[in-house]
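Please, structure for the following, as tokens.
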Amino acid sequence: MKTIIFCLIAIILVSSTSFASSEATSDKKQSVSSQFKCKGTALCINGTVTKIVDGDTLYVKKYKIRLSLTSTPELNTMKGVKASNFLKNLCPIGSTVIVDQDDKQPYDKYKRVLGKVICSGKNLNAELLSSGHAKISKQFCKKSEFVTEDWAKPVCRS
């Protein structure tokens, strides 16, 4: 009888420890995701990066995401390969991201979701631009909700 009681107490202790641990992990995930809030009324996608196509395009869940206002060179150039590698290092496959779809230009002509992508607390659009791996296509400034953000202002306001 003492053995059964001992086993039950051990099971309860182990269960409560793992529950507390998972609860802390859950709270940590919430605090990380709550640091960034999507704006506007378009999609707000929380998910895992499943594929990186190139320096400015990646997959999250069923969505093909194109970084809004951010354009990197094509993969058939050395600069394009460097931009893609930069993105892969900054936000590897399996990373959790938040995508704030652009309210004013939700999709591009290829039906990709256009948006600002946050990975590990970093704005991928801004990181690619500030590192010199991407440029802003000025023609899209009038079509984006993100033109007033610090990373887009220098080009879009000039």
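The longest strand covers residues 44-54. Residues 50 and 93 are 5 Å apart (CA to CA).
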